[in-house]
Amino acid sequence: MSSPANNRPTTASFPENPLAALFLLTYPFIAVLVHGGASAVFLAAAVISFVALMRRSPHAYPGFVRQRGDIALCIALAAPLAAVIISSAWHAHVVPRTWDSPSRFVAAIPLFLVLRRQGPNVLKWADLSFSFGALISLVLAVLSPRDWGVGRAGSTFLNPIHFGDIALALGVLSLISLNWWRKDSCAVRALKIAAFLAGLGATLLSGSRGAWVAIPVVALVIVYARGRGKPWYRNAAIPLAVVAVLAATYGLSGTVRDRMGDISTDIVSYEHGSKDTPVGIRLQLYEAAVTVIERQPVFGLGDDGFADEMKSLAQKGQLTPLAAQFGEGETHNQLLAYSANYGLVGGVMLLAIYLVPIWYFWRRVNAPLNATRRSALMGLAFVVSFLIFGMTVETFDLKSTVSFYVAVLVVLAAAAARTDI
Fold first, then answer.
1. Which of left, alpha, beta for 208 (phi over 0: left; psi -120 to 50: alpha)?
2. Can you tell me the distance from the alpha carbon of 193 to that of 79, in angstroms, rounded to the nearest whole number?
3. CA–CA separation, 7 and 135 (whole Å)
4. Less Cβ crowding at N or C end of the chain, within 10 Å?
5. Using CA atoms, how far apart are residues 82 and 102, in angstroms rounded to an integer?
6. Using one digit for the tens of pLDDT, what is the confidence trace for 293-337?
7. pLDDT at 364
8. What is the value of pTM for the model shown?
9. CA nearest 370: which of 240, 242, 180?
């Protein structure tokens, strides 16, 4: 992914950097369709980008590496690994496999730096990529789903929660990408809207309640980000449309009614001592995480520390055996997971991977140029979505999901940083 010497727009349809263009066009599609594709393609792109940076003169990248936003984003990408290193050093205990996920954030830095330097002729190849990914999500959910239990669809390698989350994110990005780089033709608009509906459909089939919760939150963020100075009735249109769609879905889909109704049922059961329900298990793990954070607040329990505590907490009666069994796999909350294992240091550095990109994109949502505004809005919606997803599941415990998040993040950050598009 070598960087072009000239970052100005060109009239040629063939990109200056075909390898980068191919990555931008195909990554979401491959991440959803191919087992291991999200990680393999991302890591290959990161390695190629690193080699490209090392081979070029520093003078080929003037200015942008000194910009405050770029520096802050690169520091944020390094923060999760820094938290793991600090905690591991404090406890003098290293579990190498736990370094894999946070290392992928660091691997995204050279990819960002190279993409940051690409011109519109390359970056615009991402235009339909999210639409293709959302469409293939629905195809998989309908034609070749894997039933992970009680009729919830996922792919052969993504469980329903992660599958539904990614499908929704791709659908939302497809919708926001309307008129991203130019005024879209009627056919392209129809494709992007169809992809949005496909993402919603795949999410519905997955039964991922965390994704459903993200829908109104993201809608409000979009309205607030772009609604300043606009008539109130225009700002009200998106929330009203979302409410109408959610109400219709709730009324027409027995799956949605049952899944949402199960939340209140599980909470009532929890209060009456029946704790081994999906919601009850999560509440037990959250309480356990808070307990261990209070015990080791600064540096946490170290690598795999929370998982290692499960048997002890179950023996003390603080967790049911079933909850302890689930806790050995994950905490079901990304922030609590980092805070329990790596302390408040880990929690703060994990928050950086959300809050710094939110700040990065927020600064550009009202930029003068449409493509910059649209890129920033897509990035803002994407990061907020994953922030919501992470409240009920560990989004970064799977290699594929962390690769997907960080790859899409740096693509949108690079596009939002441009001032000549």
1. beta
2. 36
3. 32
4. C
5. 8
6. 999 999 999 988 899 999 999 998 889 999 999 988 889 999 999
7. 92
8. 0.90
9. 180
Distance separating the N- and C-terminal Cα atoms of the chain: 20
Delimit the domains of the chain by residue range. Answer: 18-259+331-417
Cα torsion at 214, 220, 226, 228 (round to 10°)?
-160
Q: What is the pLDDT of residues 365-394, one digit of tens each?
A: 988 899 999 999 999 999 999 999 999 899
pLDDT for position 15:
66
Residue 420 confidence (pLDDT) above 70: no
With a pLDDT cut of 70, the percent of the chain lying above it is 89
SS (H, E, C) the chain: CCCCCCCCCCCCCCCCCHHHHHHHHHHHHHHHHCCCHHHHHHHHHHHHHHHHHHHCCHHHCCCHHHCHHHHHHHHHHHHHHHHHHHHHHHHCCCCHHHHHHHHHHHHHHHHHHHHHCCCHHHHHHHCCHHHHHHHHHHHHHHHCCEECCCCCEECCCCCHHHHHHHHHHHHHHHHHCCCCCCCCCHHHHHHHHHHHHHHHHHHHHHCCHHHHHHHHHHHHHHHHHHCCCCCHHHHHHHHHHHHHHHHHHHHHCHHHHHHHHHHHHHHHHHHCCCCCCHHHHHHHHHHHHHHHHHHCCCCCCCCCHHHHCHHHHHHCCCCCHHHHHHHCCCCCCHHHHHHHHHHHHHHHHHHHHHHHHHHHHHCCCCCCCHHHHHHHHHHHHHHHHHHHHCCCCCCCCCHHHHHHHHHHHHHHHHHHHCCCC
* pLDDT reading at 225 higher than 50: yes
Q: Which of 401, 350, 409 lies closest to 382, judged by CA?
A: 409
pLDDT exceeds cutoff 50 at 8:
no
Output the six-digit token pair for 70.
């770029």
Report the pLDDT value the prediction gives residue 60, as an integer from 0 to 100.
52
Question: What pLDDT is stored for residue 219 in this prediction?
Answer: 87
